[in-house]
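Researcher: I'm preparing a figure for a lab meeting and need a structural model of a single chain. I don't have an experimental structure, so a prediction will have to do for now. The sequence is pasted below. Please return the structure as tokens so I can convert it later.
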Amino acid sequence: MYLLGYDIGSSSVKAALVNAETQEIVATDFFPRSEAPIKSLQSGWAEQRPEDWWSYLKDVTAVILNASHIDPKDIKAIGISYQMHGLVAIDKEGSVLRDAIIWCDSRGVPYGEKAFADLGAATTLSHLLNSPGNFTAAKLAWVKENEPELFDKIYKIMLPGDYIAYRLTGEIVTNPEGLSEYMLWDFKENTPAKILMDYYGYDPELFPKVVPTFSEQGRVSEAAAAELGLAPGIPVTYRAGDQPNNALSLNVMNPGEIASTAGTSGVVYGINDKVDYDLRSRVNNFAHVNHSDSQTRIGVMACINGTGILNSWVKRNIVPPGIDYAEMNALAAGVPVGCNGVSILPFGNGAERILENRQLGCVIDGINFNIHNRNHIIRAAQEGIVFSFMYGIEIMESIGLKVNRIHAGHANMFLSPIFRDTLASVSGATISLFETDGAVGAAKGAGIGAGIYKDNNEAFAGLKLIEEIAPAADRTPYLEAYARWKSLLNKHLEK
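Model: Understood. Here is the structure written out token by token.
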């Protein structure tokens, strides 16, 4: 008996096959092998072809089925994780009307900010609609104003994960967590947010039907099964955006628990049990996967767009050809904490929520031609990413969340000793690294949704702790470097 999980990212589509009884990861892989392309037709825009996601999903499914040698009929449920906040529009025939506007696209910002101003901070924030900012509802407002003929053809709007589930099953559904990504879930009423739908003039029929996060949400169709090599009738029983799903993957479900990721973008995600908010709307609130009418579980997320993408930019443009990430880390290890005065603001990947939707751009400051070299840039980039995490953590702490322990997967930038040592030391939190990823989490989420596991604790009983990183005994150099970085940030924010 097996569970299949998919993680639809902006750089690749991952898949994991998990033995439901032993919790062993039987096979896992990803496609494409190089990062998937992102179209940027204008500064601040980012689009991808939904058909490419489906193509990558077909490729990776074929690989894991071939590697595992299992009978597809033994797969009992499918779960889906996906890049958040994207906008996929289809017509009545099910054809995609335009390329998807993805999470790091900033064109919706003025539409969200106008809604925030028109409706008033007291109204939007008290319903945890944040500043509608750069979320899917605001991206759709851009389409409505700038592509009116296309808007008139729209039958349904979907998130990336909703679209993949639709391709698998033919069913068009979402869940409260999904609607909260649109910024269309009213936490005060625990219903779709009529306030914003009315403001933007959206017909509720444009949006998918809302179903529970852990539930049967359709079954693999004959056509999809033929394309993918799966058995028809497998139920899709779980879906969630990548950050709530990452928290699930780390068994972070209750107040006081914190999950973090550091891939293309970076996130610190904590669980709150009350409706509370930052007055400047610099962190995001989402319905966590276990949020319900009877149990308030709100995922409070500080997101930084310029994380792994900065590290990969440094690798492509600063580091000599042929040097991999481990070798980069070794070069940076010879530079002291604080990089002898070099600081980098990592905000070169669109509007940043923690900066109140400002597009600050990446800033490199403090270079002395007689002292510094590429190794200082490598380390300063990683420190700058960590310091942006810390800036977000301080915002989260201001609304009552405590960050004493950070759970993360043993992957991406958490593979870097510099990154994780700096994060532990500047925050004062112990970091626990686990062997898991989004596709594995989605597979186990499917097991919960199918009733194979009675709850999250049973599903993640086999979660393997790889390593724990404690703060440095002397945190002073890290705190001094962060203070200098924060001073630089404030100077640029005052411009």
